[in-house]
Amino acid sequence: MSRRSGILEFAVLGLLRESPMHGYELRKRLNTSLGVFRAFSYGTLYPCLKTLVANGWLIEEPGNTAEDALAAPLTGRRAKIVYRLTAEGKEHFEELLSQTGPDAYEDEHFAARFAFFGQTSRDVRMRVLEGRRSRLEERLEKMRASLARTRERLDDYTLELQRHGMESVEREVRWLNELIESERAGRDLKGSASGEPARQDTTSGATDGLPRPGDDPGTDPSDDTAT
């Protein structure tokens, strides 16, 4: 399994832990909540869902809303498929949440992990944040050394691009320092002291600390009848 497909499976399990959804709802949440999934196709999502069903982590159910019931006979299409997390799927997702290995510090995986910090214990959040900070500090040191070696050979625009990249990493390090300080003080992102995981806005799909791209205006071309 590729790293990106692993991140997608993690994100799908996390979203379905909140509530059952059909494919279009999942794709919309992935687009709006997780910047790493701003652009991906149903051709990517549905194989992932099939894999999770085959592993016993999800089950498929027919849509049971009034809209689905009316639309199916009129269009000749089957009702939308709703995906629900199984007990085994919940257990597997919780196991993934507890992992703090090097993959959790990489760009795409960290964004997905951070989006589900509201479901993650404080000690795990701390290990992931500190690991991410160490990874970025190493990256920043290499960038500075490279710039020092090549500065004289770079034109003004390339030099400015290098500086911009360094400034972006420096900003994230400062942001991580603030988050780590809050975690050590026992505060969540809303500023309250608690030993419980920070709460997350699950109604709008927004996640504190992450980009909030606009909603995907498209519709599901398959009407969720893919199996």
Give a quick summary of the entry.
This protein has eight helices and three strands; from the N terminus they run H-E-H-H-E-H-E-H-H-H-H.
Describe it for me?
With 227 residues, this protein is mainly alpha-helical. It folds into two domains: 3-111, Orthogonal Bundle (Arc Repressor Mutant, subunit A); 121-184. 56% of the residues lie in helices and 5% in strands. The chain is built from eight helices and three strands, in the order αβααβαβαααα. The chain has helices at 3-18, 23-33, 42-54, 66-75, 87-97, 107-115, 122-150, 156-184; strands at 21-22, 58-62, 81-85. The chain has a three-stranded antiparallel sheet with strand order 1-3-2. α1 (3-18) runs parallel beside α6. The longest helix has 29 residues, at 122-150. The protein is elongated. It starts with a helix and ends in a 43-residue tail after the last helix.
